[in-house]
């Protein structure tokens, strides 16, 4: 389990149209927003990523670099980028599932075709949203076992105003006796 204020695993993945992505060299002013999504087969992911694309300039204005990541291969990642109209949003692909597990993501097995008629991969990771500080330590994490009820990006933008203005620390770091 990843703990706030501790270093996250590194990520080094290709993206659809923004070259190679490496978390350790991302160099955001305030945070890297790392959004793991299920893949092209997930209609909820497409809606979620469309909203993230729409808000990408607002995040950039707060010193936040964004990447959306799945274990899909290049072809399916390109289809997702086209589907959501990704211009600013970096879409990374080929996430090894072992790396997904390092980030604490749940892994699911295929149930065949989805409601939009696309086959689920044999194995894929469930969603996760992470804010990572420039020193690659974890600030915020939300990990899900289902595609439903994800963090709201518009609310996150408002919270970032408070966090940045008040140098608010990452919370949930305590590991001692309770």
Q: Which blocks of ≥5 consecutive residues have pLDDT under 50?
A: none
Broad CATH class: Alpha Beta
Fraction in helix: 25-40%
| Strand order across the largest sheet | 5-4-3-8-9
The helix count comes to: 4
Annotated CATH architecture: 3-Layer(aba) Sandwich
Largest sheet properties: 5 strands, mixed
Total count of domains: 1
Q: For this structure, what is the CATH homologous superfamily?
A: Glutaredoxin
Rounded to the nearest angstrom, the distance between the terminal CA atoms is 18 Å
CATH topology: Glutaredoxin
User: How many E-type strands?
Assistant: 9
Describe what this molecule looks like in 3D.
Helices cover 28% and strands 21% of the residues. By secondary structure, it is an alpha/beta fold. The protein has a single domain, classed as 3-Layer(aba) Sandwich (Glutaredoxin). A five-stranded mixed sheet has the order 5-4-3-8-9. The model has no long low-confidence stretch (mean pLDDT 96).
Give a quick summary of the entry.
The protein has 178 residues and is an alpha/beta fold. Helix content is 28%, strand content 21%.
Break the fold down into its secondary structure elements and pairings.
Elements: E1 12-14, E2 20-22, E3 31-36, H1 43-61, E4 64-69, H2 74-84, E5 90-92, H3 97-102, E6 107-109, E7 123-125, E8 128-132, E9 138-143, H4 153-166
Parallel strand pairs: 3-4, 4-5
Antiparallel strand pairs: 1-2, 3-8, 6-7, 8-9
